[in-house]
Design a protein that fits this description.
This protein has 311 residues and is α/β, with parallel strands linked by helices. It contains nine helices and 14 strands. It comes from Rhizobium leguminosarum bv. viciae. It holds the Pfam family LysR_substrate.
């Protein structure tokens, strides 16, 4: 029996609550996971898991083994990676979560550059706009907007996401030039759910001035940045977007900045990782690699006071 492989299969089954989830995370078949678990129970002469149609839970003996072995296996893997690192070789799996837009537009390319430097690294990049549980879902790192609450994580801020108002030229041709924030009340607004308050008030900031709130009429709201951009490109209204996602669209003339003297309040952006999980060398190496690259992205400022407003 491969004790190391059996323990890894057991640990992931406990954390995922299913052998299917464990197999997916480990990159092996479900029958292989089942075989590892049966061999481990025979080896210990103890039942480790309670199986039901809904999920799999550890028994008392299983929980004891899980608590004792999880850190030990992680330490062994880290020690092996550390030796490879000392001889100039970084390898292993890197599992990362990020919001879909910054993930596809920026993080994807950074990861490819990192793989060029370290060809033996395998990457799992999961892109969506939900909040993930780093421990339960076995992520090494996540990119997040806003403070991370109720998780045992270490968060390193890489900047503030500047947010601006934009529209397609075709929409502005129909409604005319927008000269003041008050005009927004009579125009079609394309928005995410988080920017507008429950009273449909759009908060706008201007350098050196207090925040103002403009009552607006959202005609289309979404939680997906790609949908938001496509709706704006279709000429359906004015929307607030992350500047780093539209720099090329503005340069190409497909979107135009509206009220450039104003901006929506910027959002803090963090790279986070579990505080109770030993940082493997591959994770540490990528963290050191990605942080300066993220800070260089146009539209990500290094000061909360830098709103990206035109003077």
């Amino acid at each position: 029996m491969d004790l190391n492989a059996a323990l890894k299969a057991f640990i992931r089954t406990v954390e995922k609550g299913s052998m299917t989830g464990a197999a997916r995370d480990l990159g092996i078949s479900q029958p292989a996971v089942t075989k590892h678990l049966l061999n481990l129970e025979r080896h210990l002469n103890a039942r480790l898991l309670e199986r039901s149609p809904q999920n799999i839970r550890p028994t008392t003996h299983g929980l004891e083994l899980y608590e004792a072995s999880r850190g030990a296996i992680a330490s062994i893997d880290a020690a092996l990676e550390g030796i490879r690192l000392n001889v100039g070789e970084i390898e292993g799996n890197l599992r990362i979560h990020a919001p879909s837009c910054i993930g596809s537009k920026h993080l994807h390319g950074i990861l490819l550059d990192f793989q060029d430097l370290h060809p033996k690294i395998a990457v799992d990049l999961v892109l969506d706009d939900r909040t993930v549980d780093l421990i339960y879902e076995n992520f090494d790192l996540t990119l997040r907007y806003g403070r991370i609450e109720a998780q045992e994580v270490i968060a390193r801020r890489f900047g503030w996401m500047q947010r601006i108002l934009v529209a397609a030229p075709s929409y502005l041709e129909r409604v005319g030039e927008v000269r003041s924030p008050e005009q927004l009340s009579d125009l079609s607004i394309i928005s995410t759910f988080v920017v507008l308050s429950g009273k449909n008030m759009l908060p706008l900031m201007r350098s050196g001035s207090p925040t103002i709130e403009i009552p607006v009429k959202p005609v289309f709201r979404t939680n997906d940045a790609h949908v938001l951009l496509n709706t704006l490109l279709a000429g359906r209204g004015i929307g607030q977007v992350q500047w780093c996602l539209v720099t090329d669209l503005i340069a190409e003339g497909r979107l135009v900045r509206v009220l450039p003297a104003y901006a929506v309040k910027p959002t803090e952006a963090f790279l986070a990782y579990p505080s109770n999980k030993f940082m493997r060398p591959v994770v540490r190496a990528f963290t050191d690699f990605v942080m300066p690259r993220l800070k260089e992205i146009e539209g990500i400022s290094q000061s909360a006071d830098d709103l990206g407003c035109a003077l």
